[in-house]
Design a protein that fits this description.
The protein has 360 residues and is of the alpha/beta class. It contains 16 helices and 13 strands. α7 links the parallel β8 and β9. α5 packs parallel to α6 and α12 packs across α13. The two termini are 23 Å apart.
């Protein structure tokens, strides 16, 4: 029976569920000065200072994937600053969207990456040995960053009018789930539209040229076509009922490097805390990287979510409902059990920073 992985009460009661005293976790993650034992060095670890915890690393290289929409963690270099003193390098790889990132993870090219709710389901169906590490928190404006859009002069005025139309999105991405849920609202079936799968980076130019009648996309592409080309939104993803995105890791990497995973999640969430408190500064940093005008990037940043949340029973039940939807629509060839991509409660306690445990 699937129980809690991270509960919703106090930090102490949560950690009690994992049979790990709260003072041990707080000392390990916050107070202590760790020493490093890298099992790939072939040398004995140095003597530890009193009260210090040894961080065991079975790798000297963290391979992390990000999408073409950009990654503020990469831009600010927070992982490099934290990990290089431990003798660990960070290698970043860019992918068009979540499905491409998950495929790279499946074939062993990356260890960890951030995707929407849909790509890990398709990856699991393909046999990928993955683990849900943490979820992305949903903010009040996050749904506005994804939409079903039409060109400015399109005769299509309502969502119901996309019946029989060619609808473009990346199959296996968050847009795939979004369109199915949106069609349900207007009593349309997935079979009522003509689906063309295309990554956002390719679809944007075709949409601008007017060869795509309906596009399911997200920021930064959505903000660009809205502001520069007058694209009209038929429905954004507000209240679509998504569990949100995740950080995903390979099972082997996660099992072998729990200390490292905890550090990674801690730094990502700390970066998110900074970004949500400094959205205009975040926009200034990432706008030149994506080659986007600052006012447009400020819109993107205003509706982005950066913080993480721990893996809970409720979150995974919501994720299971997404998987069941794809199976019921006969899009997935077999039923997926998301519990097969989870750790034990004790293992989640080891990799989950206190900020993720204590906050929703």
């Amino acid at each position: 029976m699937f129980k809690f992985f991270v509960n919703k009460t106090t930090v102490i009661s949560k950690l009690a569920l994992f049979t790990i005293p709260s003072f041990i976790v707080s000392t390990t993650l916050i107070s202590c000065t760790p020493t490093v034992s890298n099992t790939n060095t072939g040398t004995e670890p140095k003597a530890e200072p009193a009260g210090a915890k040894t961080i065991t690393l079975k790798t000297k290289l963290l391979r992390i994937g990000y999408q073409s929409s950009g990654d503020l963690v990469r831009v600010r270099g927070v992982l490099e600053k934290r990990l290089e003193p431990l003798g660990l390098k960070v290698q970043w790889s860019q992918f068009a969207q979540g499905p491409q990132l998950m495929e790279a993870m499946n074939v062993g090219k990356i260890d960890i990456g951030s995707v929407g709710e849909t790509p890990p389901i398709f990856a699991q169906a393909a046999g990928a040995k993955i683990i849900y590490l943490a979820g992305r928190r949903l903010g009040p404006n996050s749904g506005k960053g994804s939409a079903i859009a039409v060109p400015k002069n399109s005769p299509i005025k309502t969502l119901a009018e996309i019946k029989g139309q060619k609808v473009v999105f990346q199959k296996g991405s968050a847009s795939h789930y979004f369109i199915i849920k949106a069609l349900e609202e207007v009593n349309l079936k997935y079979s009522d539209i003509k689906v063309l799968s295309m990554p956002n980076v390719e679809a944007r130019g075709a949409f601008i040229q007017g060869t795509i009648p309906v596009w399911v996309t997200g920021d930064p592409h959505l903000a660009l076509v809205e502001k520069l080309y007058g694209a009209r939104v038929l429905r954004d993803a507000t209240n679509i009922g998504t569990p949100g995105g995740y950080y995903i890791g390979t099972r082997e990497f996660t099992k072998e490097n729990p200390d490292l995973v905890r550090i990674i999640l801690e730094e990502i969430d700390k970066n998110g805390q900074w970004a949500e408190a400094n959205r205009k500064e975040a926009a200034k940093l990432i706008a030149p990287v994506l080659k986007i005008d600052l006012p447009i990037q400020e819109v993107i940043s205003s509706r982005a979510t950066y913080r993480l949340r721990g893996i809970t029973s409720e979150l995974m039940q919501s994720q299971q409902s997404v998987a069941d939807l794809f199976y019921n629509e006969k899009i997935l060839p077999k039923k997926i059990d998301v519990k097969e991509a989870l750790l034990t409660p004790q293992e989640y306690a080891a990799i989950t920073p206190p900020t993720l445990i204590s906050e929703k």
